[in-house]
Amino acid sequence: MSHNTFGHLFRVTTWGESHGPALGCVVDGCPPGLRFTLAELQVWLDKRKPGQSRFVTQRREDDLVKVLSGVMLDADGETMTTTGTPISMLIENTDQRSKDYGEIARQYRPGHADYTYDLKYGIRDYRGGGRSSARETAARVAAGGIARLVVPGVTVRGALVQIGKHKIDRSNWDWDQVGQNPFFSPDAAIVPVWEEYLDGIRKAGSSIGAVIEVIAEGVPAGLGAPIYSKLDQDIASLLMSINAVKGVEIGNGFAAAETSGEDNADEMRMGNDGTPIFLSNNAGGILGGISTGQPIVARFAVKPTSSILTERQSIDADGKNVDVRTKGRHDPCVGIRAVPIGEAMVACAIADHYLRDRGQTGRLK
Amino acid sequence: MSHNTFGHLFRVTTWGESHGPALGCVVDGCPPGLRFTLAELQVWLDKRKPGQSRFVTQRREDDLVKVLSGVMLDADGETMTTTGTPISMLIENTDQRSKDYGEIARQYRPGHADYTYDLKYGIRDYRGGGRSSARETAARVAAGGIARLVVPGVTVRGALVQIGKHKIDRSNWDWDQVGQNPFFSPDAAIVPVWEEYLDGIRKAGSSIGAVIEVIAEGVPAGLGAPIYSKLDQDIASLLMSINAVKGVEIGNGFAAAETSGEDNADEMRMGNDGTPIFLSNNAGGILGGISTGQPIVARFAVKPTSSILTERQSIDADGKNVDVRTKGRHDPCVGIRAVPIGEAMVACAIADHYLRDRGQTGRLK
Amino acid sequence: MSHNTFGHLFRVTTWGESHGPALGCVVDGCPPGLRFTLAELQVWLDKRKPGQSRFVTQRREDDLVKVLSGVMLDADGETMTTTGTPISMLIENTDQRSKDYGEIARQYRPGHADYTYDLKYGIRDYRGGGRSSARETAARVAAGGIARLVVPGVTVRGALVQIGKHKIDRSNWDWDQVGQNPFFSPDAAIVPVWEEYLDGIRKAGSSIGAVIEVIAEGVPAGLGAPIYSKLDQDIASLLMSINAVKGVEIGNGFAAAETSGEDNADEMRMGNDGTPIFLSNNAGGILGGISTGQPIVARFAVKPTSSILTERQSIDADGKNVDVRTKGRHDPCVGIRAVPIGEAMVACAIADHYLRDRGQTGRLK
Amino acid sequence: MSHNTFGHLFRVTTWGESHGPALGCVVDGCPPGLRFTLAELQVWLDKRKPGQSRFVTQRREDDLVKVLSGVMLDADGETMTTTGTPISMLIENTDQRSKDYGEIARQYRPGHADYTYDLKYGIRDYRGGGRSSARETAARVAAGGIARLVVPGVTVRGALVQIGKHKIDRSNWDWDQVGQNPFFSPDAAIVPVWEEYLDGIRKAGSSIGAVIEVIAEGVPAGLGAPIYSKLDQDIASLLMSINAVKGVEIGNGFAAAETSGEDNADEMRMGNDGTPIFLSNNAGGILGGISTGQPIVARFAVKPTSSILTERQSIDADGKNVDVRTKGRHDPCVGIRAVPIGEAMVACAIADHYLRDRGQTGRLK
C-alpha cells in the first residue's frame, strides 16, 4: 500500500483509519508566504462533515483540523503564513462508538473493500471500514483548502447535478443556491423533488448514486502537460481515486461520442480587448492536456452507498455463505458529501500543475 | 513537458513527433525471461496502423517496430528473451509528405492543441500535429505488446460499442466478430449500419465520436492499491491520457448514479469448487481499488476528429481572426483506431500493478 | 520544498520544525502482518535523543513516539500488527524554551541554512533552525524502526570510527562496546582519548567533525537495480540527506582510488556447503548496484557543528555585516548522534529495495 | 530493473547494452527554445569516447550521436531548437567484434556485476558486460550536453585529481591544461608522472583507481531542497550511479571530519557592490541542500578497472571454482574517461533543480 501520496510538486500524503485516534495528511510543496486562518480552512471541512442534514450519515464528528507544521503564526495568534515546509494537518476521530464487531469483522460486505483487502493483505481493520472509510476524504478536503491558496484568482466550486434519474435543469443553474440546500444543488427547483425521493430511500434503508460537477474558474492558460500527466488526466485520476467513484468526464464527456466534429469544435475569435475568446467550451477548458484559460469542467459519478439495510448474499473470511445486512449510520446518497471532496481534488491538481509550470516556490505569481 | 513516462515499476517513456525521423518508447521494468518474436509484437501495431479500411485515415505507414535493446536473440534468429533491462523500441515515420505548412503553421485549429502548445511553449512543431499527433500512440501499442507478456494468463481485448448515437446490441456480443469487420465491432448486426453512417460522414468531410470498451480477463485478484494508485484510478488515468478521450468509466460507470444500493451490490456465493463466485460485476472487477479476480471492464469516450473539411472560426498566432479548414487525410472516427490503444493502456496498468504486488522481477509468477 | 519524501515502495514522508508543537513522519508501504511494541520502537529514538551525556546537546526532549495509524492493537494492549496502511508517527516538541530570537531571526549563521532558506523562500522559521534543525532526524529514526521489521534476518548497526583526526583501531572492533560508551565507539581503547579531546572542544565552545560507519548484515542477495537506483546509490543518497553530511563511501570507498585491480578484486570460491563465498569485501556488499549477500558497508563524514561560541563574520537579512556567536545548547560533535540516524537511513534503503524485489506486500518472505 | 530514469522535472531515461545495435536516452522536460548544433553536442561525446590515447581502452567507437525527436531544424540544416517535447538520442554500437563468449558467458568476473545480475535476473547479456557496460555512460554524456543548455551562464568542468597515490598539486590548478593532456589533469607537472605510472600498469595488464573533481560555476543561488532531494544529495546520488564509483564528497568532504567549527565556517561579508561574499567555500556551494551562488564542488572516487590480465579466483554459473583472466581491450584507469561522465551528471542535477525552482518551461530565465 505504498501509494498514499499524490501530486508531483504539490504533494499530498494522507494517513489514518476510521477508528484510530486520528487521521490526517502532509501537504508537501506548498509555496511560502501564503496566509490563512484555521477558521478559513475549517470552512471546507465543515462542508464535508457528517450530520448536517437528515440526508447524510448521522455519525457525529466535529472534524476540527489542526495544523502541526509548516506555518508561522502572526502576532494576532490567528493568521498563519506558510514557510514552504511540509504542512502536517491532523483531525481527531471523536465518534468511535465501541461496539461488537464480531460479525462484521469476518463478513465481506458486497461493494466494500472487505474481500479484496483481506485477499491482498491477509489482515484488515474492519472497524468502520478502516482505511477504506470515507473518513479518509476529510484529509483530502484539508489539503484542498491549502491548494486553493496556491493559484491566485482561482475559484473551484462543485455542485450535485443528478441523484438517481433525477437531473437538475441546467438552465436554472445558480451558484448562490448551492449553499442554500442540503444537496449542494445549483437548481432550487429540484430540491423538493430530491428531498422526497431521498426520504423514501433513507426510510427504506436503501441508497442511490449521484453525479457531481466541479468547475474551476480563473485557471491560468498553459497549465498541464501534452501526453502523460495531462491536466485533464490528472484531474480524472484524482476524482477516480475518491471512494465509490465509477466514472469521470471532462467537458462534454461521453456526450462527445454523439457529437460531430463541426458541433464539437470550440470556435475562437479575437475579443475587442485583444484577447482570444472561445465561443463554446466543449473541451472543458483543456486542449491537448493544457489549460486554455476557459473554465475547467469535470463531472464524476458516484455509486450508491454499499451499506444498506436489505440483506445481500455474500461470503465470510472462512469461506461460508452469509447474508449481510449493514446496520448503523450511513449516507443514503454518498454523492452529496462528495461535492467538497471533488472540489478538493480539482484544486490539488491545479495547484500541482501551477507549480510545475511556475516553479517550486511559485515565483511568477 | 517532463511527463512522457507512466507506470511505477513497469514504466513506459514515449518520444517522437508525427514528422520526425522516428518515434518510439522505452519500456523499463519488464521482468526477465519473457519470450516473444517481432512478428507477435507487430500484430498489435498492425491493428492500429492507418489505411486498413476506408473508415480510417489513408496515410500510409507500415509502422514496423524494431527492438533495439533489452533482449537476447535465440539461435533461431527470431525468438527474443527479455533480460530485465530497458526495452527500446523504434518505429520509423515513412509517410512524411513534404508540403507547404505555411498557413497551418500559424493557424490554431479548433479542438487541436495548437493554441495551448504555442501558449505554453512559445514554439510548436506544426507538422502533422507534432507531438500531439495520434502517431504517438503507436509507441503505446508497442509497449502494450510487451505488457501483455508480463502477467501469465491475462487477456486484454477491446471493442467499439458506439459510434455517434448508434450503439451495439450487447446481447449480440461475440468476440470472434471483432476481427471480422473494420470497426472492431463485437456485434455483426450493427456493422452495415455503421458503414452507411460513416460513409456519409466521411464524404461530407465531417467526423463523429465513439465509445470503446476494454475487458481484461484472467487478472489475478489482489492487484491494486487502496487509496491513491487504485487499479481503476490508474486505468482511468491512462485511458484519459489518450488523445481525444473525454470520459472514462469502470464497471457500470455513470449508470451507477441511477442504481440503487440493492441492485448495485455484486453478491457473492461460494462455488462448488470452494472458490468465491460473484453473481454480477457492476464493480468492473475492482473493489476498493484492488482487483477481485472478475473481468476488469473499462469504457472510454472519444470525441470526433477535430480535423474536418468544414470551415470553423479561429485565430492565428498573430492574433488575427481566421477561418480554418483542415485538408488532408484524416480519420472520420478516430475512435476506431483507439481500440488497440485502449487495450494497450489497460495491459500496461495491469502489468505495473502486478509487479508492484509480486516484485520487480515478477518472481511469484 | 516538495521533496520531503523518500523511497519508492517503502516511502517515508517527514514533517515538522524544531519549535512547532510536534514533528513526525508517515511510513507508507510497510507490509502487513509485522508485529512490534511501542517500547521496541522507542529504543531507536532513545539512542538518538539529546542529553544522554555531556558530549551531546543538553536540550531535553523525551522524544516519545506515538503511532497514530496503520496498526491494530492486540488484546495485550501493547503489541501492534501492521495492516499495510500508512503508519503515521508523531513526536511532540517539549523543550521549546521561549526566548528572544530578535538577533538570530535576522542573522545568517555561517554553515547553517539561514542564508539559503531566506534566499529561496523569502521567509524562514528561525526558531531553533526550523525545518533545518537536526530534530527532523527523530522522525527518520522512527521510520527506520519500522524499516528494520521489513526484511527478516537483517541487522543494521552503526559505530563512530573517527572524531577529528582520532580514528579507532579497527583491530579492536567489538560491537558489544558500542553500547558501553557515550560515543558509539566499537573500540574501547579510544574512548578515553575521545573523552579528553571532546571535553576540550566542548569547554572551548568549539566543535569537531566525525566519521560514522554503518554495517548491514543478513541482507539477501539480489536487492538493488543495475543503473539508476542502485542499492549503493540509494544508500549514499539517503546518508547524504542527513544534516551536515559532506561525504559518503561504500566498501573501501576513496581508498579504492589507491588500489590496484588485483588487490581490489573480491575473489570467490564455492564453500563446502555449496554456497558461494567471497574472500574479501572491498565492494561493501554490492556489485553493479545489487547486493551480493555479503555485509553492506557504508561510511559518512559529518562536518563540525556550525553553532559555536566563537564569533564568525557574517551578514544579516538587511545586508549588513555582523559578527555571529551562537549561544545555547549544542552538540560539540553532531557526528555522535548521527550514528542511529545513519542506521535508520540504511535500514530504509534496504527495506525499499526488498519490497521492489519481492513486491508490495513482501509476500516472498 | 525498473529504474533507468533519473531526475524529477529534467528526466533522463537511458537504454541499451554494450553489444546491441545501439544505445541511447530520452531527455524529458527540456525547456523549449534552446538552440544547439549536432557538432556542439558531439564535443561532449568525443571527450568520453574510447581510443583517444594509449591510456584508455583501444575499442574503437565513433559514438556519433543522432537526435531523433524534440527539436526543429533551422533552414541552415544545422541549428536545432528544442520544442519542449522529449529529445530522443541514439548512438550506434559499431565495434562489436564477433567472438566466442563461451567461457565468459558462464564465469563470474570478480568486481563485475556478473554474479549479481545472474542471481537477480536468472539471465544476463554477457557480451561486453551487457547493460552494466560503461558504454551506457555515452547516453549520460549526451543527456548532459542538453542539460548544459538549460541554465543560462552555468559552466560545469571536471578534472582528474588523483591516480593511485599520485595526487595533483592543487596550487598548479589551471583549467587550460585540462584539454592539453590525455588525463584531463589541471596540473601540467603531474602529467609525466602519471604517464610513466600508467604505462607500467597498462603493460602489466593491471589497473588502478582515481579521483575526479567536478566544479560548477555560475549556478544561481536558491536551487535545491532542504531535506530530501537536497542539491548535494542529488549530485551525490548521480555520481554514485556511475559504474565503479565507491565514494562521493561535496566541498571539503571527508576532510570535514578533521576540521573544527571555526575553520569550517564559511564566513561572509557584504561586497562593495552590495552583494554578499563568501570568504571560503568549505561547503562546496551548498548550504542546507540549497545552492549559495558559490561554485559547486564535488569529488568522486573510481575503483580500478575490474577487467585485468592477472588470474583471479572466482566461480561460474554452474557453481564450479574457476580462475578468471579478462583478455581484451580495457581501460587501465577507468577514472580518466569518468571525467566527462561526472560533468554530465552534475549538469543534469543542476538542470533538474533549476526547473523545479523556475518551472517546467524555465520561464524565469
Automatic annotation (TrEMBL), chains A, B, C, D:
NADP(+) binds at residues 48, 54. GO terms for molecular function: chorismate synthase activity. InterPro entries: Chorismate_synth, Chorismate_synth_AroC_sf, Chorismate_synthase_CS. It holds the Pfam family Chorismate_synt. Keywords: Amino-acid biosynthesis, Aromatic amino acid biosynthesis, FAD, Flavoprotein, FMN, Lyase, NADP. Its cofactor is FMNH2. The keyword Transcription does not apply. It comes from the Bacteria. Reduced FMN (FMNH(2)). Pathway: Metabolic intermediate biosynthesis; chorismate biosynthesis; chorismate from D-erythrose 4-phosphate and phosphoenolpyruvate: step 7/7. It catalyses: 5-O-(1-carboxyvinyl)-3-phosphoshikimate = chorismate + phosphate. FMN binds at residues 131-133, 243-244, 288, 303-307, 329. It is an enzyme of class 4 (lyase). Its EC number is 4.2.3.5. Homotetramer. Belongs to the chorismate synthase family. This reaction introduces a second double bond into the aromatic ring system. This is Chorismate synthase. It comes from Rhizobium bangladeshense. The lineage of its organism: Bacteria, Pseudomonadati, Pseudomonadota, Alphaproteobacteria, Hyphomicrobiales. The gene is aroC.
